[in-house]
Inverse folding.
């Protein structure tokens, strides 16, 4: 069974059509990257996957259930683009609070903090953290419930290169353990780190394939260049 199935999804925000009839599936146990420039609709699509986005038509199922249904609450983790942790709690208090929501304990909270490299900052108030640390605290709070599907909206923005590499290794370890990850990024050099790619532009999919398939289709080894060629090919068809 696919972890996520999106069918003919149309989303309008205000007068704009933001997602224009998307259909794709996300296979389980893999890291799928949602790549696209700013404003292409990544966050809107991820919101639809977790069931918080009003959609005009079409549908999304996650683990066989309609997106957002109560049965999915403990099975789907979501890390928003803006870190969603409590500024006036410590890092550890945040992790323990989310652990309690998911029916987990202090042990799991500490493990999640260690996994994102925040064990040393556990006693600090979130308001005193750097942006990158806040993002990681937010990620730890999603990891603490050990979700089957993890939806991450630009989780590596603002991280130094070492932490970025560590985080991608962490994503692959989670996938190897059976989790499904859907990770958005506007940085094309992260595309190569994904098992599958969804290339989004102006609310439409330019590609839904492995990085190797995208390279082969575009006839270039550079994924950023491949993305540009796919855009040009699409525009020629449209013209
Ligand atoms: P991305 O995450 O790829 O940057 P978004 O999903 O945030 O893209 O936005 C897609 C489009 O929807 C953009 O053109 C943006 O201007 C528009 N949009 C985003 N949020 C809103 C909103 N609250 N109201 C109206 N339009 C919005
Ligand atoms: Mg976004």
């Amino acid at each position: 069974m696919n972890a996520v199935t999106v069918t003919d999804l149309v989303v309008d925000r205000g007068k704009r059509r933001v997602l224009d009839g998307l259909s794709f599936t996300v296979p389980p146990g893999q890291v799928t990257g949602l790549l696209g420039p700013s404003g292409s609709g990544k966050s809107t699509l991820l919101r639809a996957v977790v069931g918080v986005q009003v959609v005009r038509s079409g549908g999304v199922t996650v683990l066989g259930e309609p997106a957002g249904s109560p049965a999915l609450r403990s099975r789907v983790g979501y890390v928003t683009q803006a870190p969603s942790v409590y500024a006036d709690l410590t890092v550890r208090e945040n992790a323990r609070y989310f652990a309690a929501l998911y029916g987990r304990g202090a042990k799991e909270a500490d493990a999640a903090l260690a996994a994102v490299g925040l064990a040393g900052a556990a006693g600090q108030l979130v308001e005193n953290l750097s942006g990158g640390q806040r993002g990681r605290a937010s990620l730890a709070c999603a990891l603490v419930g050990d979700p089957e599907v993890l939806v991450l909206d630009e989780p590596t923005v603002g991280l130094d290169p070492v932490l970025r590499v560590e985080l991608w290794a962490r994503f692959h370890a989670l996938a190897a353990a059976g989790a499904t990850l859907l990770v958005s990024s506007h940085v094309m050099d992260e595309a190569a780190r994904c098992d599958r790619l969804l290339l989004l532009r102006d609310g439409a999919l330019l590609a839904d394939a492995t990085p190797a398939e995208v390279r082969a289709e575009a006839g270039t080894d550079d994924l950023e260049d491949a993305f540009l060629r796919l855009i040009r090919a699409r525009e020629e068809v449209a013209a």
